[in-house]
Amino acid sequence: MNIAQNLKNAAFYFPDRCAVLDGNRKITYRQFNVESSKIAAALTDAGVKPGDHAALCAPNSYEWLSFYFGILKAGAVAVTFSHMLTGAELPQILSDCRPKVLFTFDGKLDAFGDLKKGESCPELVISDGGDFSLAELIQKGAAGFNTVGRDRNDTAAILYTGGTTGTPKGAMLSHGNIQTSLFNVAHYERSSERDRALCFLPLNHVFGQIHIAHSMIFCGGSLVLQSSFDLDQALDAIERYEVTNFYAVPTIYIRLLELDDLNDKIKSVHYCFSAAASMASEVVRLWKSRTGLDIYESYGMTESASMVTYNHYYRHVVGSVGTPASLIEVQIRDFDGNIVEPGKRGEICIRGANVTRGYLNNPVDTQSAFWGNWFRSGDIGLFDDDGYLYIVDRLKDMIITGGENVYPRDVEELLYTRPEVMECAVVGLPDRDWGERVTSFIVPHKNRQPDPAELQTFLKEKLAGFKVPKEFIAVDELPKNSAGKLLKREVKKKYGSREIFSV
Fold this sequence. Notes:
16 helices, 503 residues, disordered C terminus, alpha/beta
């Protein structure tokens, strides 16, 4: 098998249908398939063999997608990481994955340093200022290239993760992993060739790459690509291209809710999805009351090739991430590895055909990530009696204060019900007496300055005293990665020493 076959199938059934809208360009499935085949042929002629690594470090574009599928067609492994990485991060990743080919852009070449020295340097750099431009590479290839067959367990892509924990790790996803997940996404979201999905989330990330791009190509729909999120550009694209499927992260939904004419701006949208971080229930309810649309959530991660659970059409439960997707098993275990009953909190563990076999060149982290063949997510969750999963928090985000465990989301959910709170993050900061002190960082709504004493009184009525933040710190913004996930370690680093107001 080879997941690149999905593109060939779409081109066979819908050759003249628009596959990608990138700026003013409209690329059909026929053109997309032919150009990726030419790239595969040219890479093969240049010595790229099945299993070789080919890296992509560039912003979203049609060129990114065509090169990515060219890599897959050649039987090579697509290694994807953010073009926003700088400094020592890039050489570190190159040293780890040792790509034979690198696809990037001229503005990034200097950040890589000397790409002609060292064992980890690529033999071929595809960029206008590299060995070949992508256009030149396409000219060299033949359109009739036959996609290289691979075993379902062969690695198709390596996605570098580490946005919430620090050190990048290359999660190896097989053709079988990705095919399982993209089929589940398309099935549960009821996607079809009539859908148009807006994708401004980075294609190097599992959400953009597999959940949005792969699943839309699988069903023959259209991708509206943007290099990053810009509110005006996103709204313009929704109206101009009649976008039906809107994918975003919680922060973006919060921003959209500030628009008075929201319904007019998104009138073509019939499906809304949020990922990258848990959505506060209050935001979901407010969106439903304003637009009449549910915000669907699923649970997933890079290591699971996206979808693990899905909060589906038939019984959408606000606050939950749904029930396990097809052929995927989920258990909740205590810290000793014992399965716990519904209603009890524990670590979410996953088993299924979508789960990575491990991290590239990292046997220690690979071993610690599994209990037998069950992947340890590092997330705390619980099942209700109906089998719906609820995310409590990241295990590493749990605060231990005075010997008591505090799950930040318990506090954040309540803060989001306050009219003065637009965004918030609750973290534990070092404390001599308590070990960690519970601290809340708040991005206020315009013209609504939070009152610390009032917030503390409000929370004390609803939470045990040890869970109530000792400090409330107002900030202009909260740090996030390129996929929109809140980085609590960066919150601590950036704001931890500041005491703007406290009680």
